[in-house]
Design brief:
- This protein is of the alpha/beta class and 311 residues long.
- 31% of the residues lie in helices and 16% in strands.
- It contains ten helices and 13 strands.
- The strands form five sheets. A three-stranded parallel beta sheet has the order 1-2-3, with helices on one face.
- Helix 1 crosses helix 9 (256-267) and helix 6 (181-191) crosses helix 7.
Length: 311
Amino acid sequence: MKNDTGRFAPSTTGPAHPGTLLSALLCWLDARSREGRVVLRLEDLDPDRSQTRYAHALARDLDWLGLDFDAVEHQTATGERHTAALDRLADAGRLYPCRCSRRDLRRDATRAVDGGVRYPGTCRERPLPSAGWRATSDALRVALPDEPVIVEDEGGEPLGHDPLREMGDPVVRRRDGSIAYHLASVVDDAAIGVTRVVRGRDLAGSTTTQVALQRLLGLPEPRYRHHLLLLEPRGNKLAKLHGSIALDELRAHFDATSLCGELARAAGLRETPTPTTPTELLEDFRWDRVGTADRTMRWTGGRLTLDPEDG
């Protein structure tokens, strides 16, 4: 609806690939079909992997595809919001320092519902320094309530579970001083008035942790919809880390309308990869026309091909 705001929030740790573009397209179609706003948020907080050149390239590539945004935001420019949230969590007695290394977690951990490692609560009883959270160089975690969090996903993805028991207390500030994903995401969503979060189902497992943080901070809760993924042939999600085809190479073989047609076919919005634009797809966009099964995408000899739907 006209008061709705969506956001597309890619990390700036590598070039765009088909999975990036599919998620951007679906987020944009959702917002524009509701006559709402859509914001491009460049998640550039990772000091080890984020690069300015990737941020510039992502904005350029989304524009090339035909996606327009009402605002563009860099998370590195929103640090005051994040530190204010840490102050509120500390005042509520919810922050604690954590000395556990990745090796410690791998040794003691069980698998979490989001595919990561469940934190067992080793440091949960450690207090903050008397001078406050700024006085420690340890990672900071939030002590979550021990209670189930029920969230309705518009696409039917099962989201409800107890984030403390199934995932453990999340890191909200890393040892290197950077703000961690969960906290930055919910704080920035609230600040820009996000009412709808449309993203890939690989992030569904993190939703209840984010909702728990929203509730602790008194932030509004957006509606969530998690969509199908594009997979690479080994079954992993198409991603920068798995060597997926970068957009620079795709642009050597496709113009924007042809690639948009390929994405529309992958999403189930078109039966064949007929050249189209996001604006043309908007004319008859409905979520009940979007496929729910993940699709395997292959890049062979300058051609994108899709395997039959993966159950």
